[in-house]
Amino acid sequence: DPVPVLTIDGPSGSGKGTVSRLAAARLGWHYLDSGALYRAVGAAAARAGLDLADVEALARLTRDTRIEFREDPDGELRVLVDGEDATDALRTEEAGAAASTIAAIPEVREALKDRQRGFRRPPGLVADGRDMGTVIFPDAPFKVFLTASAGERAERRYKQLKGKGVSVTMDGLLREILARDARDADRAVAPLRPAPGAVHIDTTGLGIDEVVERVLAVVAS
Ligand code: C5P
């Protein structure tokens, strides 16, 4: 039997990351944070000073950048890019914007395809992103599409970043979230769309635990 996959797609701030990690832990499955791959490539491209129009060089960089996930002793997921811990740098809104810019380039997406599919190992995988259910794992038996109002997503991001000591304003965050939504939904390749058959969960006003239960119910059904 093919290894089961639970895809969790949705816009930034919908709670995907936290919910996906908790669901993976409850199921005892592996976890793929596909956004971190795009963030890592975006940061690597910026550091290398690559011209975003040079798609050949970008594709090469995408293939050559080493990206590893490691869980630290207190259970936090760290992202190592070419051997260096880049977790905190990759979490900024700036890194998110850089990711969504290079994520619109078909050659970059193509170069990341096999790497993402490589995370599908027994006993199962929870894959979090924008096109997990539509492009990367179209045959996944379990698909969820998470949403939340833009205001609530900005508020969650605000708390998250504030907690990490990053200085941001609600207004700025809301603007950035709406701009990134538009870029992700309007791009020609792999735009953010619910996969056919995906279970929609609107997380506005719901606590994390409630969302995790609803997501796990999709796997149990
Ligand atoms: O999920 P996260 O906010 O970390 O993703 C950062 C950006 O990477 C997104 O705004 C999106 O443009 C891109 N991305 C994508 N496809 C994925 C995951 C992320 O295009 N599967």
From TrEMBL:
- Catalysed conversion reaction: CMP + ATP = CDP + ADP; dCMP + ATP = dCDP + ADP
A single cellular component GO annotation:
cytosol
Gene Ontology terms describing biological process: nucleobase-containing small molecule interconversion; pyrimidine nucleotide metabolic process
**Where does this one sit in the cell?**
Cytoplasm
Presence of the UniProt keyword RNA-binding in the record: no
Q: What is its EC number?
A: 2.7.4.25
Q: Which UniProt keywords apply?
A: ATP-binding, Cytoplasm, Kinase, Nucleotide-binding, Transferase
Q: Which residues bind ATP?
A: G10, P11, S12, G13, S14, G15, K16, G17, T18
| Superkingdom, taxonomy of origin | Bacteria
- The molecule here is called Cytidylate kinase
Q: What is the originating organism of this protein?
A: Luteimonas wenzhouensis
Quote the gene name from the UniProt entry.
cmk
